[in-house]
């Protein structure tokens, strides 16, 4: 099995996508690919490299050429993990973002594709790690080291699972990034919206997660929640599906003038 197909198997890439990748080539010169891979795996240059990659591959239906090159970059990242001494298990968990994003694309459009090339440089440059159910990104807050928490769409928000993730992340940071071991942890997400208290039962796992944070800012008018709750950010409220209790409650709430938005909060000590 070639290295990309092997990696795809490890991270749970859909077989159909693995086959597409095996039949894909970027068409870029080898030296150009090498430079892009080097830049994508560098904390200081991954954003610029993602822009350059998009410019270099303007004709890329489904985003599979970009996905292929970024998975090649992930092979380099694996070596960087090994040099740092970080367990391969964390590498695999972190790189499962590629499979997750491809599957999310299918949920929204009923076809596979990759459109998160702007984001995954964080994983490739070892700025963001998945530890248990949550992702942890080395960041800043008020000029000091901080950790930005991200909630993958497949995360289990059961309180015990979240507590385990936070505990393991603290140990990970203490071992490999000691400057962040006692840093503030913050999160910006629709999952922190105060509106959820009106939409979910008191024993909800989502509310249990929400209550871990001190909410500092609520952007009521943003609509990022549409993508995560209804799988389509373009939907008008009257077209929201009603397949879950949350969808039904949120649709009724928004149609009656309520706002969900997204909120920013700091993890309580």
Automatic annotation (TrEMBL):
The protein, known as: DUF5596 domain-containing protein
InterPro entries: GNAT_C, NAT_N
Pfam families in UniProt: GNAT_C (PF18164), NAT_N (PF18082)
Domain annotation N-acyltransferase N-terminal: ranges: 4-126
Domain GNAT-like C-terminal: residue ranges: 128-267
Taxonomic superkingdom: Bacteria
């Amino acid at each position: 099995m070639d290295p990309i197909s092997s990696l795809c198997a490890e991270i749970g890439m859909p077989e159909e996508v693995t086959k597409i990748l095996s039949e894909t080539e970027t068409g870029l010169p080898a030296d150009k690919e090498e430079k892009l891979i080097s830049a994508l795996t560098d904390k200081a240059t991954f954003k610029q490299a993602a822009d350059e990659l998009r410019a270099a591959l303007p004709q890329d239906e489904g985003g599979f050429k970009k996905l292929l090159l970024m998975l090649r970059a992930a092979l380099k990242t694996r070596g960087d993990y090994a040099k740092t001494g970080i367990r391969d298990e964390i590498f695999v968990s972190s790189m499962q973002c590629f499979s997750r994003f491809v599957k999310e694309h299918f949920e929204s459009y009923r076809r596979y594709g990759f459109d998160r090339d702007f984001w995954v440089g964080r994983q490739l440059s070892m700025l963001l790690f998945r530890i248990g159910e949550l992702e942890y990104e080395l960041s800043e807050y008020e000029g000091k080291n901080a950790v930005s928490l991200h909630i993958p769409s497949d995360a289990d928000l059961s309180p015990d699972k979240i507590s385990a993730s936070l505990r393991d992340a603290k140990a990970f940071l203490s071992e490999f990034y000691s400057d962040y071991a006692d840093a503030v942890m913050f999160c910006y997400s629709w999952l922190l919206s105060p509106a959820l208290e009106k939409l979910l039962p008191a024993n909800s796992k989502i509310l249990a997660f929400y209550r871990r944070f001190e909410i500092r800012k609520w952007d009521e008018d943003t609509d990022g929640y549409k993508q995560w709750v209804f799988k389509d950010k373009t939907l008008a409220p009257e077209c929201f599906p009603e397949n879950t209790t949350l969808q039904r409650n949120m649709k009724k709430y928004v149609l009656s003038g309520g706002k969900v938005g997204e909120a920013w909060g700091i993890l309580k000590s």
